[in-house]
Amino acid sequence: MIEALQFTFVQHALIAGVLVSIAAGIIGSLIVVNRMVFLAGGIAHASYGGIGMALYFGFPIFLGASLFSIFSALLVANLTLNRRNRIDTFIGLIWAVGMAIGIVFIDLTPGYNVDLMSYLFGSILAVGTQDLYFMGGLLVLIVAAVSLWYRQILAVSYDSEYAALRGVNVRFFYTLILILSALTVVIAIKVVGLILVIAMLTIPVYIAEKLSNSLWQMMLISGFVATLFTLLGLWLSYTYNLTSGASIILVSAAGLGVFSMVRRGR
Predict the structure, then answer these.
(1) CA distances from 43 to 20, 22, 217, 258 (A)
(2) Is 76 in contact with 97 (CB distance < 8 Å)?
(3) 188 lies in which domain range?
(4) What are the angstrom distances between the C-alpha of 203 and each of 147, 187, 199, 262?
(5) Looking at the domain assignment, is residue 215 inside a domain?
């Protein structure tokens, strides 16, 4: 794969893979600790509505998906914060309606004939310079937010009732975690697609959870593991001419299997 590094699109793919992996490691840790995996899955599929609207109105895909995902995150936060027992109903509704909106807008887009598989399973080799700026800016935002409010996020993640008694604005930080999760899902869609994005957010975190003693350690380790899996997946896809997103997830699953066997053996 060394000779391929002379191509700009390969360089962009590697940079995008690293940026998204670090973001996924940080936000994936928050998603798992807060038991938001199903929530993130709902937002990921709902973002398809933003993709369809962006195509129909002619503005950037990332912008449309981001705005729609943020709206979905705000809606989810408002509906689920105090009604956790009905969370599955709300997520199922947002999941289905978001995808339906996207499909309808794509049907209404005149002359649109691009393969939709790129949004379902990723198209990391098509990452452009503007996409990299978006990914880099989002990663800076995530690191800044988590660094600035780490203690509050930690308190809300592990015991929201105690955090509220200590004066922490639980609603704000719960919503913040969902918004950051939504934006991370959007950039991860470019790498592995909305069908596979949850695996990217959870498999490295599962491994990191077994190797860490704190939330920040989990974030660091999961970011490193996600980056390793992404680079190995890109190498595999280039060597054997496979779909990049699927290759990254298969490498991640294989890594999880090896880790589990080694850990069980020890």
Answers:
(1) 17, 20, 26, 30
(2) no
(3) 2-197
(4) 23, 17, 6, 16
(5) no
For the stretch 1-40, pLDDT in tens is 566 677 788 888 899 999 999 999 999 999 999 888 877 8
**What is the C-alpha to C-alpha distance for residues 122 and 162, in angstroms, rounded to an integer?**
40
Give the total residue count for the chain: 266
User: Environment class of residue 40 by beta-carbon count within 10 Å: exposed (0-12), middle (13-18) or buried (19+)?
Assistant: buried
Which tokens is 194 given? 């909305």
Tokens of 223: 């970011």
Other C-beta atoms within 10 Å of 165: how many? 10
Tokens 């780490």 map to which residue? 150
Instruction: Scan for tokens 């938001």, then name that residue.
Output: 36
Q: Considering the domain boundaries, does residue 147 fall inside one?
A: yes
| CATH classification at residue 113 | 1.10.3470.10
Q: What is the pLDDT of residues 180-194, one digit of tens each?
A: 999 998 888 878 887
